[in-house]
Design brief:
The protein has 78 residues and is mainly alpha-helical. The chain contains 3 helices and no strands. The longest helix has 27 residues.
Length: 78
Amino acid sequence: MRVGVPQLLMVLLIIVIIFGPTQIPKLTKMFGKSLRAFKDGMDEAGDDAGEEDLPAEKKAKKAKTKKAQEDASEDEEE
């Protein structure tokens, strides 16, 4: 079963009718934040599971990357 352009337009029209054009940006922003939080949680769970197996260099690099991501997300919130 394939979803084509007419089907997507119909779904979009129904969403606009139900929520109204003013609520759609709020919904997409909330969905994006939820998806980002979910991905971050999955990354943290994966990091915790395999952390003991990593050499010290990789641990330091991972910590540095994680710190940079946190700083970037703080900048976005401001």
